[in-house]
Amino acid sequence: MDVAKITPAIGAVLTGVDLSAPLTQAMADALYEQLMDHQVIFLRGTDLSPAAHLALAESFGQLDEPHPLYPHVDGYERIVKLENDSGAPPDTNTWHTDLTFKRVQPFASILVARVVPEVGGDTMWSSCYAAYDRLPEGMKQDLEALEAIHDMGDFRNSFPSKEQLDSALPRFGHMIRPLIGTHPVTGRKFLNFSEAFVTHILGLPTNAANSLKTWLTNHMNKPEDQMRWRWQAGDIAMWDNRCTMHYAVADYLPAYRCMNRVTVIRDARAPED
User: Fold this and answer.
1) Is the Cα torsion angle 19, 20, 22, 26 positive or negative in sign?
2) Contact 152, 167 (CB under 8 A)
3) pLDDT per position as a tens digit, 38-47
4) Is 44 a catalytic residue?
């Protein structure tokens, strides 16, 4: 396996990996090691079948249940089918870490590009490790003592009526998480904040919480922490959802874009919670 870093902070392209053959334990372990090192990894030009997509994801841990809102690939209810065009615009063009409001935050996602627009439709990732490392030492100490409330945030836009939203809120729930997280495998600290899903900072009045949220949003929106991937059909991306954010750039409409995603809930190689 050859590894080429994309930026100093995040991302690597892997070559010399043959996914047409059954995945061996040694190869799965090697992919996992690269994921821990680079936070998001890419393989170009694969021809991964839906069955192989699931098998690859299962080699990393427990898979998510079928998505309650998004459609799935025919015959594979755990593969989310993300297809967008002018009639179905995307809703993931904000910086976010997936589903931080759930009791068990997903470990990782594996995304396969099926149909991509001729121009546009890139995805960006950002390192929450790097965002933490850039914090002033005093701010690191201050944030260690704080926790944030995560709820469905921007997903409220998916429910156009009051009745639908009232039904969704208790179903999606919320979680309280520390603003400074520690990765369970690498031991590295990361800034555990998402502008899409953090609604409040515990212990602070609303005005002060909003001021801190604005500061954190601006702090995390730095190109030095980020990378951008221009998709080609057949590309695979896998990212560690515990220590990264991502943003699906919605600049390609009215063109059509179709991606397949499998989410891994629990990391089989991580210590037990």
Assistant:
1) negative
2) no
3) 999 999 988 8
4) no
